[in-house]
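[Help] Beginner question about ligand-bound structures

Sorry if this is basic. My supervisor gave me a protein sequence and a SMILES string for potassium ion and asked me to "get the holo structure". I don't really know what that means in practice or what format the answer should be in. Inputs are pasted below exactly as I got them.
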Amino acid sequence: MKIFTSDQIKKWDEFTMRSNGISSLELMERAAHSCAKWFVQNYFEINSFAIFCGAGNNGGDGFAIARLLYKKGFEVILFADESQVYSESAAINQKKCKDISGLEILKFENANNFIFKENTIIVDALFGIGLNRPIQGKFAHLIQFLNDLNHLKISIDIPSGLMADEMIADQAVVFKANDTLTFQSWKKSMLHPETGIYCGNIHVRDISLSEEFNSLEPSNELVIDEKIIGEIYQPRNEFSHKGTYGKATVVAGSYGKIGAVVLATKAALKSGSGLTFILAPKCGYEILQISCPEAMFISGGENEVVNFSIEENSTLGIGPGLGTHSDTEKSFLNFLKTCKNPLVIDADALNILSKNPDYLKLIPKSSIITPHPKEFARLFGPTENSFARLDLAREKAHELQIYIVLKDHHTQVITPDNRVFYNITGNSGMAKGGSGDALLGIITSLLAQSYSPENAAIFGAWLHGKAGDFAAEEFSKEAMLPSDLIDQIGNVFKYLNKKVLPKNRKD
Ligand SMILES: NC(=O)C1=CN([C@@H]2O[C@H](COP(=O)(O)OP(=O)(O)OC[C@H]3O[C@@H](n4cnc5c(N)ncnc54)[C@H](OP(=O)(O)O)[C@@H]3O)[C@@H](O)[C@H]2O)[C@@H](O)CC1
Ligand SMILES: [K+]
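Answer (accepted):
No worries, everyone starts somewhere. Holo just means with the ligand present. The predicted complex, written as structure tokens, is below.
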């Protein structure tokens, strides 16, 4: 799914109106119906809504939703500033509400003294993607007041105070929603931690904006959806053998950190590589042979990996629990000098590379590195916020001609040609030591199976998150472990074959 800027979304709305032969008012009605339907489906038992409407088309949506919910028998109260100059469509919808005798429109100021019923849902239709400056004055007071209410809060299109594609100022006032019903596609600000925190759960509402515009309009930022995954995933060929699915080698571990090797290896095995090898120190030999009997062990030293004797033609994932011992560092750097094929690099291998900017030049072209924000900062320097971090990652991915999998709540896969793929699977239950080791194993395994580096990174990030979601469903976010995530990889492949492929395959 492409991510568009607010200007592009406006063009998309206009293109749709022209090509469908409908007015702005009709498109607004479509959007409002879609939201009203969601409210009925999800909150049928709650019959009270307080809807706050601004002067633009977002406010227009609010008025139209109020009318639709009222007509369905819900109790609705509207708050608006009657002195504001409404957009054309908002004015028409405001008038339609005024004409309904049971639908009261109160002033914003009245909200302070209004007694909201305990189960009233607060709906934010103050500002949408037309916000063009920080919120101040009476709107800021109103939003602060609403944020302090202990009620369920839902934003229409985007929480008021957020711009679709920009970072917010330090002291910005933003409506803090539990859920956001956004039209047609994700907005960039919903995917970054500093701004996404205001959105709650995102529900993308399909309002049938033009498919033609969507395919023609360029965007180098995308959300990894199931359509993309359906196109990447290659189901296994029944007439195949273990040689068909490549050789993956996990290069990892040091004394006391053999668990990281187990996790990375198991994740690689579960992701389908034909042959899986482990290059680890001897101290982990028994643990690894017992916990990962399907993998073959190659000794890389006594307590650390100091010898990169790699199985021929195998794809390497390097880093988990590797340690940064000077001998490990020396042999890793020497190995890199001879290495031409793309690698997957994480954790301590990244920490070694961060010691000297010249080391970065040793990374083979088209390799995939998987830093978390702290590792990223060690490698490339600090940035002010996640938007700036992404910009720097784009610069570095291009300069080094590598793929960067920037781990975050919405992990970003950045390609050497400046595209960004945001992952929307995964959850906070994965914020635990060991999750990253599993990701390295998954991506290495996919790369070994001849997925291109780009597809291995995108598919790997998605698969990892989806397995995490399945694990959270079964064990809770708190109790789920990275090993539970690995155990769910099989269910994700089953899901892909049953649910995703039939929808997305043309052949
Ligand atoms: N038919 C369609 O196109 C459809 C559109 N849809 C909906 O429309 C939304 C976009 O609507 P929009 O463009 O009217 O912008 P919106 O955010 O409602 O308000 C902008 C107004 O606020 C003002 N303003 C800006 N910043 C301000 C500030 N800080 N403090 C105070 N005022 C500020 C600005 O006026 P200004 O003061 O800049 O002259 C302007 O009056 C979109 O998110 C979706 O919900 C859907 O219904 C689908 C169909
Ligand atoms: K809003």
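A couple of things worth pointing out: The radius of gyration is 26 Å. The chain has two domains: 21-217, 229-504. Feel free to follow up in the thread.
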